[in-house]
Design goal:
alpha+beta; Jelly Rolls; 7-stranded antiparallel sheet; 4-stranded antiparallel sheet; binds 2-oxoglutaric acid; binds fe (ii) ion
């Protein structure tokens, strides 16, 4: 049995207690998010918490679903009418292994943190989101991204508003989180995006997250990637999702693409019967 009290370092970060210390933390996270869309709370997860999250992820690592595709930074199809050097025409291999959310038990450490009311409220206050609900998707609300040497998380812009991640284990080498803050805020800025893609931009910030760090990242306007990994050790990152509408789930297509399966709820919400669904 896990408790948020033992999984989080609440002495250092008293997110469970209204008062000046919590206010100061929320305000510093907000400032970081406003500055460049990225906030890190170093060591929010306790040492025991990291150990428990790692054991849990290792225990279900066989359930990871690996997908491969080739994608540009925008997740759009190729457009041959554009010049070959246009960033929309730069495609990279992306391989991704997600351990779907239905592998994480309600009483396990990952879900204990996700479901903790004060933790959720801290994330919501930090993001200043009025509408903020746990994702109702049983495959996607809390997942672990597992990556090995050579796995690629190439340059991209996110299509969601924000991503909340918890670093659980790093690879032996590589894996820095690199981002070009707000590179397309207001304007697509294709020339500078092209420079990031070909390694000549001076707008890239690199951060090394350590196990236990929480990251809140707004990646819609900031081009980002995870630098290539090296060594035998796998990288594990927990990804937690909240959404603006209660009861939302992903489409069956999206689930199959990311998790290798879809559940009855996905077909029902899409108005389909699983046995008649053709994709
Ligand atoms: O694994 C990470 O640290 C971030 C991955 C990422 O950029 C994403 O999930 O969109
Ligand atoms: Fe991303």
């Amino acid at each position: 049995m896990h408790s948020a009290q033992s999984l989080l370092d609440l002495e250092r970060y008293p997110i469970h207690q209204n008062g000046p210390a919590r206010d100061a933390l929320v305000s510093s996270v907000r400032t970081d998010l406003q500055k460049d869309g990225c906030a890190i709370v170093k060591g929010l997860i306790s040492k025991d918490g990291i150990e428990a999250l790692l054991a849990e992820a290792e225990g279900v690592s066989d359930c990871g679903f690996r997908s491969f595709n080739r994608t540009n930074a925008y997740f759009t199809p190729d457009d041959p009418s554009l010049p070959p050097e246009d960033p929309r025409r730069q495609f990279f291999d992306r391989s991704n292994t997600f351990i779907p959310a239905d592998n994480f038990q309600q009483e396990g450490p990952l879900r204990t943190i996700y479901a903790d009311g004060a933790f959720g409220l801290f994330i919501q206050d930090s993001l200043q989101e009025d509408r903020f609900f746990p994702y109702a998707d049983p495959l996607a609300d809390v997942i672990v991204n597992m990556a090995e040497a050579g796995n690629g998380f190439p340059w991209h812009f996110d299509t969601n508003n924000f991503t909340v991640t918890v670093a659980i284990q790093n690879a032996e080498e590589g894996g820095a989180f690199e981002y070009a803050p707000n590179i397309r805020q207001g304007d697509e800025n294709f020339d500078e995006v092209a420079k990031v893609l070909n390694g000549t931009s001076d707008q890239v910030t690199s951060i090394n997250l350590e196990p236990g760090d929480l990251q809140i990242f707004c990646g819609r306007y900031s081009l980002h990637r995870v630098a290539p990994l090296r060594g035998d050790r796998r990288r594990f990152v927990g990804i937690m999702s909240w959404v603006q509408e209660a009861g939302m789930v992903a489409t069956p297509e999206r689930c199959k693409q990311l998790y290798g399966k879809a559940l009855p709820i996905h077909y029902e919400r899409a108005g389909l019967r699983a046995d008649t669904y053709i994709d």
